[in-house]
Design brief:
Keywords: Membrane, Transmembrane, Transmembrane helix. This protein has 128 residues and is mainly α. The protein is built from four helices and no strands.
Length: 128
């Protein structure tokens, strides 16, 4: 009984490694989002123009991407906000595969449900 199988000793270590990687991913996402938002804000404060006519701003990923390529300050800020929004969504997506690999199918189902709800909410938000 004193001898454990190698896999039982590796499982907690592996789970801790995955949790550490996910926490790093979240931190990187938040820092990247903050940096992009600050760049856009500084650009807006220095130039004094948003890059768009008064009262308008880019809607949708395509318009934001075009504005980002043209370095329009509002599009840069919106890109940072998108990064911030998508960071936890990416965490849910990664968790789905982690639970699948660990064969924890109950959490696969829960995580898949959460991911589907997130996608549906984005689609409904776009439609509404």
């Amino acid at each position: 009984m004193a001898n454990q199988t190698p896999s039982s000793g590796e499982a907690p270590s592996r789970i801790a490694d995955v949790e550490l990687a996910i926490s790093k991913m979240l931190r990187i996402g938040v820092v990247a989002a903050a940096a992009v938002i600050i760049i856009g804000l500084v650009q807006f404060l220095v130039t004094g123009v948003s890059g768009y006519p008064d009262g308008t701003y880019p809607l949708g990923f395509g318009a934001i991407w075009e504005g980002l390529l043209a370095m329009k300050s509002v599009a840069v800020i919106e890109t940072g906000l998108l990064i911030l929004i998508l960071t936890p969504v990416l965490r849910v997506f990664v968790s789905l595969f982690v639970f699948w690999q660990e064969k924890d199918y109950r959490f696969v189902g829960i995580t898949a449900t959460v991911f589907i709800i997130l996608i549906i909410s984005f689609m409904l938000g776009k439609a509404g």
